[in-house]
């Protein structure tokens, strides 16, 4: 996972057995993030519609400790991608930018998540955490879309 001038880069790809518009509709509803996230467990505290300049506040628990996570929807390009950038982060992170890219693959959708982050934790530790988190989300998506 390469680094760039903004921080460490983590990428995860998931193939979803559903058309791009169906996948987009699911991901464009901020409340659905809670359905995907079993690790770490989170709740959507408040959210606007997913539009450029919109925002969302999450409550997240890591090892039993509660944190707030605020994000700004920096870019929204239906049904191709959206980018969220953290405005409030747990103390372990100093920057977080997450690009969600959706690529049509016939009747399926390839989703590419790219996270650029800075953290007080080592890149190795954070990447293990992110790998586990995205793999768990992939499992939930496979259940939702009958894979």
Automatic annotation (TrEMBL):
UniProt-listed InterPro entries: START-like_dom_sf
Database matches in Gene3D superfamilies: 3.30.530.20
Record protein name field: Cell division inhibitor
Species in which this protein is naturally found: Halalkalibacter hemicellulosilyticusJCM 9152
